[in-house]
Amino acid sequence: THRALLMQLSKLSEISWLAENTHPPASATGLVGDLHCLVPLAGLIDPQAELDRIQKALIKLEKQITPLERRMQNPHYQTQAPAAVVEKTRKDLDALQQQHQALKSKQTEMQALIKDNLHD
Question: What is the C-alpha separation between 11 and 26, in angstroms, rounded?
Answer without folding.
Answer: 21
